[in-house]
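Hey, can you fold this?
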Amino acid sequence: MTKLAEMKCEACQLDAPKVTESELAQLLPLIPDWDVNVRDSIMQLERVYKFKNFKLAMVFTNKLAELAEEEFHHPGILTEWGKVTVTWWSHSVKGLHHNDFIMASKTDQLMD
């Protein structure tokens, strides 16, 4: 399998398939620091990144914003002193799509 971070997001239409339970089981080990949360019946990927201060958290947030624009797939981002909480899900399918796992992996690479 190609590394997730090397893949590109595809345009996600309303009828795009959500990841299946078996796909979820295969994809989650590829992004081990991410949690699956369900909010308002919508499955989402979430991770908290920690930083030494607010300025470094903002640098990361801005890098993530640039990445999201490049891929045209946008996360929930909560930037606080010393941490950034990132949440990926596909609004159009109201759940998780393969794109969310690609973006979670790409987000992890921003820390390298």
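Oh, and this one too while you're at it.
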Amino acid sequence: MSCYSVAHSPDADDIFMFYAIKFGWVSSKNIRFENIALDIETLNREALNSFYDITAISFALYPFIKEEYALLRTAVSFGNGYGPKLIKKKGKKLKKNFRVALSGKYTTNAMLFRIAYPEARITYMNFLDIEKAVLEEKVDAGVLIHESILDFDENLEVECELWDIWEELSGGSLPLPLGGMALRRSIPILKAIEAEEMLIKAVEVATKNKEMLSKMLIERDLVRIDDKKLDIYLGMYANEESAVMNEKQYMALNRLFQIGFEHGFYKCPIDAKEYLIPKEYKEFRFS
């Protein structure tokens, strides 16, 4: 049996999508996974070093690791009318060169933010520390991600929705690509296909058993929010459209890569579908 490391963030949607495997609801005779939860900045940087076999990533990172990692079709998070929020203390006026805390250099929100606010002075930190940094005025503003967008201190207010920046840059009508997963290309192709199939099944099973799985996660203190917020959050980022990317999501992802190229983040635009695991190989191999 092959064992592969799976790294994901500690936010509720990643935990939710993986724990159908952790709890034994999805398994394989050929593969087992060992998981680790780390903040998205750490995950992105470790992916640049090809550290984990399978890893959650910010979609904006993918063009930098495309030669070492295949893009997975599953466990994806897209915003649809919502997304990260730029927050500040109430009543504060931001200068063009305001100090801001972001969750990581290679995150999707960082790329969109840098395009919209080119003169801002950026500090990167763990996403869990951003709200406190703004409240203590270590920075003038910060971009909240994950569950933080649902509930933040009453002394803070939203300066800008990054969804609005995305709408303007993308031309509208496309969901906002935030995070997905990637698999190391050195994994043998049949094992890679099976690993992806397991992860797809895990998201499908989790979604179909949302109430039961959510209760188990809360009882075990595996998530940082209560049942009502968890239900809202999973509806946003871990839903039926998270199991397998659809055509509109591919269009959005390609638009993100094109925007990154146009603004100098990437050397060239890429087509996401060209970097997927070729699942048709399994049929060809055994036909």
